[in-house]
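Write out this protein's structure.
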Amino acid sequence: QVQLVESGGGLVQAGGSLRLSCAASGLSFGWYGMGWFRQAPGKEREFVAAINWRGGSTRYADSVKGRFTISRDNAKNTVYLQMNSLKPEDTAVYYCARTRSIMNDGLDKTDFGSWGQGTQVTVSS
């Protein structure tokens, strides 16, 4: 059973930056795609970004393209989300997720089956 632990959330002013980290326990981290999702109050959880197991392919929600960057360090079993030019509408609980499939070069938003506990990001105007 994998454990995913997010960190790096907090309160930031609009236009500011935050970097989220997600540390994964267990072996074989490098076999899985990783992603970030978020859920704002009263809304459904939505996809934010994903990176495939090789780290060579990424995918972003239109709302964050050009502002957020996902990356991974397989030696540290960690995936990151660098968030720049933050907006109040980015306020949400951010969740780290791992794909069900292994060694899959694709980035299917429905392939995620393991989740962290979430970290709060609040952007003030």
